Amino acid sequence: MKFTTTILTTAMLAGSSLAAPRSGLAERLQARGVLSRQLIPAEKNGVLLKDGSDGANVEYSKNWAGVVREKPPPSATYTAVSATFTVPTPKATDNSNDMQAVSAWVGIDGDTYTQAILQTGVDAYIQNGEQTFDAWYEWYPKNAENFDLALTAGDVIVAKVESSSPSKGVAIIENKSSGQSVTKTLDAPSTSATLAGQNAEWIVEDFNSGRNMVPLVSFGKIDFTGAQANANGASYGVNDAALLDMQQNGQVKAHVEVSSDTEFTVTYQ
Question: Smallest Cα–Cα separation from 67: which of 259, 157, 202?
């Protein structure tokens, strides 16, 4: 993701994120401008029964925290995923002045279906006390790209991806705080990278730079509201979906709490 050269700081502040499927994909190298980014599968470290969550199964992942609908209803496919959330305030976890970051995004596929993923979201970074933000979209395996959209901590964002066919889609981010919005129409990058509509995802991620994870920034909490996935004309929320807590080196780094079928919170630990 970021080269370990003198352009590191500038490149990181130019910014981007990528989202990693939890299983089935080999590492990939992705470039956005001068950035080199690498996708790795999220690592699951076991399953637990989350207290007070009506028996929901919670999986541990090394780099994902959030909610994943792993299977669509019978004879249906997911064609849209959306949510509203606030751009987090990144705070350094130490005095190293090293880059720390976090991403928040919504997506279709890329979990149990690994050939493609259509996704869009935002990043928050801090380095040397300076906060930076960006918005991005991606249709894996094509490289991610930045939206031209100004962001600041506390902005209320609506993120949505929608597919009109397995090879056609759109990514939309609206900054409700500024009144600006951006839209990008996308085509599948190849015939082998069409969508299946098997997964719907709302994720907070600690992404990778090369072989190493970028240190996770302290992001406080990210509240997802209006979380919705559409499949064959019906709408679905996060109830009965898989919950992911982020765990690194035996410690939970980000914890998920579901408050309703359309609302949940990811909290930095």
Answer: 202
DSSP state of 216: B
Instruction: Name, in order, each residue with C-beta under 8 angstroms of 63's C-beta and a sequence gap of 6 or more.
Output: 20, 40, 42, 43, 205, 206, 207, 208, 213, 246
Show the domains of the chain with their CATH numbers.
8-268 (2.60.120.700)
**What is the C-alpha R_g of the chain?**
17
> Residue 144 — very low, low, confident or very high, per pLDDT cuts 50/70/90?
confident
For 16-72, the pLDDT digits (tens) are 334 444 332 222 223 222 233 333 334 455 544 344 344 456 788 888 899 999 899
DSSP state of 12: H
Element (H, E) at 10: helix 8-14
Determine which one of 130, 174, 205, 263 is catalytic.
205
Tell me whether residue 257 is one of the annotated catalytic residues. Answer: no
